[in-house]
């Protein structure tokens, strides 16, 4: 009886351990960017007709290895410009370390949207004071990081 109970505990422990390892591996792959996530379409809605968006979009992504598409935005509210990487990069991608190749695609889409809608690439205002404060350091950090990550 003890042998059966011990065997059952060993089998149950092995199954639970394997499930835990698989879950950790899935979460790690999701955080580092698996190829499926890297080839996801990134899109931005531009308040302009498709003819006005096509040229600036082509210029914005000219140096990137991406495919693009233009579609009508939902509700007739402009154009949806989308881009995605053609090839996933080799090796692991660390999302928050500045090595994520999608950052360049995001930046290109943001800059194109700003250029079409405002006539220039809009950047955050510079600080109006010369005195550096701890609170200002947080704002500078957030401003520097905002261009590369996050929602479009």
Structural class: alpha+beta
Could you estimate the helical fraction of the residues in percent?
40-55%
What is the CATH architecture assignment of the largest domain?
2-Layer Sandwich
Strand content: 5-15%
Please give the domain count.
2
Overall geometry comes to flat
Main sheet: which strands, in order across?
1-3-2
What string gives the helices and strands in order? HHEHEEHH
- What is the CATH level 1 assignment of the largest domain? Alpha Beta
Count every helix, treating DSSP H or I runs of 4 or more residues as helices.
5
Gyration radius (Cα, Å) is: 23 Å
CATH level-3 fold name of the largest domain: Alpha-Beta Plaits
- Total strands: the figure is 3
Distance linking N and C termini: 62 Å
Largest sheet: 3 strands, antiparallel
Low-pLDDT sequence parts: none
């Amino acid at each position: 009886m003890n042998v059966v109970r011990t065997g059952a505990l060993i089998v149950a422990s092995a199954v639970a351990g394997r499930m835990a390892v698989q879950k950790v591996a899935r979460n790690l792959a999701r955080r580092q960017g698996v190829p499926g996530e890297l080839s996801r379409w990134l899109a931005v809605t531009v308040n302009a007709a498709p003819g006005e968006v096509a040229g600036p979009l082509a210029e914005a992504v000219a140096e990137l290895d991406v495919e693009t598409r233009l579609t009508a935005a939902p509700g007739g509210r402009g154009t949806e410009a989308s881009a995605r990487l053609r090839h996933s990069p080799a090796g692991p991608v660390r999302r928050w370390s500045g090595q994520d190749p999608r950052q360049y695609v995001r930046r290109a889409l943001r800059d194109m949207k700003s250029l079409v809608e405002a006539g220039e690439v809009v950047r955050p205002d510079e600080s109006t004071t010369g005195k550096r404060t701890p609170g200002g350091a947080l704002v500078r950090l957030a401003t520097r990081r905002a261009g590369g990550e996050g929602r479009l």
